[in-house]
Amino acid sequence: MTTVRPKLSIDGLIAELLTLGKISEAEPPVVTRVVFGEADLRARAYVKNLCVDAGLTVSEDAIGNTFARWEGSDPELAPIGTGSHIDAIPNAGLYDGCVGVLGGLEAIRTLKQLGFSPRRSIELVIFTAEEPTRFGIGCLGSRMMASVLTPEKARNLRDKEGRGLEGLRASAGFDGPLERVALQAGRFAGFVELHIEQGPLLEEEGVDVGLVTHIAAPASVRISIEGEGGHAGARLMPGRKDALAAAAELILALEAAAKSTGAIDTVATTGVCEVFPGAVNSIPSRVRLETDIRDIDGARRDRVIDALQAACIDVEKRRGVTIKSELVNADPPATCDEAILAALEDSAKAAGRTYRKMVSRAYHDTLFIARIAPVAMLFIPCRGGVSHRPDEYASPEWIGAGVHVLARALAQLAS
Ligand code: GLV
Ligand code: MN
Ligand code: MN
């Protein structure tokens, strides 16, 4: 054992978060790290080096999921996993995902430096492409680990520029058969993801940590509308087939369908609207929409998707445009494991931290790891509930409390 650090090195962890945040495709403080882009690769290298410095054994799978292992005294036992993602949507902040990766690493370093010896190995996992930015589907790495996305379907993924997953992963240095990404149930004895809440409750209530009992069910529908272009001045209004006007109806129909459930938990968003040709004096001939629909009740979420699809049929008929919709994903919600939650609760109490149980409305890689292992999540507050924005912020105290509880829980689960 080298130097013993008696407590968490929060200053060091914050410095690492700030350094990671500067590895961005955009001018800091804006963080953009699209999977397999130059910043994503530099960020991976930075984090992998930190893991090696911490004495962990680092390996990667064919899609770039990264595993940093602290070998337990009984290496035959299934490990306890922790971790999150370091890719970031365009115009993001410093903390989404990164708190779970660097905080997980700090929890491991602290346990090591305290002289703790785990019976089960502890593995830090850095998942590939939690964010859907490049391929339009979230949790690519964990989805494949859990065999929810087959290698065959993954091989067909393309980004907006038409570049395929196969070429992109190869140029990022990840090769080998995609078939090997899938993990067997039981590969992890348990998994805990530390993450910012991305909502306001913990801060508003002054509670240190949230113990996540359920993760809401996400879905995404991609819609393409083919209308008829033409001169914005010369073409009169009767008989127009304006693809953007049709898209506007669909966007509002989706919003209305989400509101109509009367449930606060139903949310729907159209986050992408690409207009062709995108000239002020040209009638839009083609539009591509990407929509995101979520609920903690999967069946109720599906009724909103059905309403959107009915609106597509209606708008197509009335406006004489052609509308194609593709259900990209419709994942069931996840329920967290009682025993892992109990370990988190014990840890929060032992660490003298306040806690509450809560639902995750955002999705996370844990949603998919739940298919192959008992899981739970640990949330910390973020200022104003703001996330997916450059002004996302979690204070060193909040992060410290989360890492403290995580470290204790990992120690308990790995003993
Ligand atoms: C994850 O980033 C999400 O959109 O919930
Ligand atoms: Mn995110
Ligand atoms: Mn995240």
Summary keywords:
alpha+beta; 4-stranded antiparallel beta sheet; 12 helices; 9-stranded mixed beta sheet; 415 residues; binds glyoxylic acid
SSE order and pairing:
Blueprint: H1 10-22, E1 31-33, H2 38-53, E2 57-60, E3 66-70, E4 80-85, E5 88-92, H3 98-113, E6 122-127, H4 140-145, H5 151-155, H6 165-171, E7 190-196, H7 201-205, E8 209-215, E9 217-226, E10 230-231, H8 243-260, E11 267-276, E12 282-283, E13 286-295, H9 298-319, E14 322-330, E15 334-335, H10 338-350, E16 355-360, H11 366-369, E17 375-380, H12 396-414
Parallel strand pairs: 4-6, 4-7, 7-17, 8-16
Antiparallel strand pairs: 1-5, 2-3, 3-6, 8-15, 8-17, 9-13, 9-14, 10-12, 11-13
Helix pairs in contact: 1-3, 3-12, 8-9, 10-12
Bound molecules: glyoxylic acid (GLV) and manganese (II) ion (2 copies).
Plain-language structure description:
By secondary structure, this protein is an alpha+beta fold. The chain contains twelve helices and 17 strands. Strands 2, 3, 4, 6, 7, 8, 15, 16 and 17 form a nine-stranded mixed sheet that branches. A four-stranded antiparallel sheet has the order 11-13-9-14, with helices on one face. The N terminus is likely disordered. One manganese (II) ion binds next to loops.
